[in-house]
Amino acid sequence: MSLVMIFDALLIFSMLTLGWMSIFSLSLFRCIVFFVCLGLLAAIAWGQLGAFDVAIAEAAIGAGITGALLLAAWNRIRPVHTKVIEPSVTNAKTSQKDTGEHV
């Protein structure tokens, strides 16, 4: 078994694993990261097959532009967590006079 066949088998296994993880991950951010990694591995696979123009297009479009658009969309839909201090709670940053303000 040559080194190229071992690399190809590892590439296939990695692509299948990343494809599965990008579909079934619970975190949307992780799904996007796994999808971008899958696109980069697909570009390497196209390079191994000798289709270098397709590999460059896959890296630019599949991983680059699509990944950036997915991350921008994720940034717009993720919930924003705000921390509000209750008036009864006091700490080093608040005193009894200014408990109604946010820190």
Rg over alpha carbons: 23 Å
- Approximate strand percentage: under 5%
Tell me the quaternary state: single chain
Q: Report the end-to-end length measured between terminal Cα atoms.
A: 63 Å
Largest β sheet strand count, sense and barrel closure: none
Number of strands: 0
* Residue share in helix: 55-70%
How many independent structural domains? 1
3D shape: elongated
Question: Helix/strand-derived class?
Answer: mainly alpha
- List the total number of helices: 3
Task: Please give a structural write-up.
The chain is mostly helical and 103 residues long. It has one domain (3-77). The protein has 3 helices and no strands. α1 (3-24) packs antiparallel against α2 and α2 (28-48) packs antiparallel against α3. The longest helix has 26 residues, at 52-77. The N and C termini lie far apart (63 Å). The mean pLDDT is 83.
Topology, element by element:
Blueprint (H helix, E strand, L loop, with lengths): L2 H22 L3 H21 L3 H26 L26
Helix pairs in contact: 1-2, 2-3
Throw out a few tags for this protein:
67% helix; mainly alpha; 3 helices
Summarize the structure.
By secondary structure, this protein is an all-alpha fold. The protein contains 3 helices and no strands.
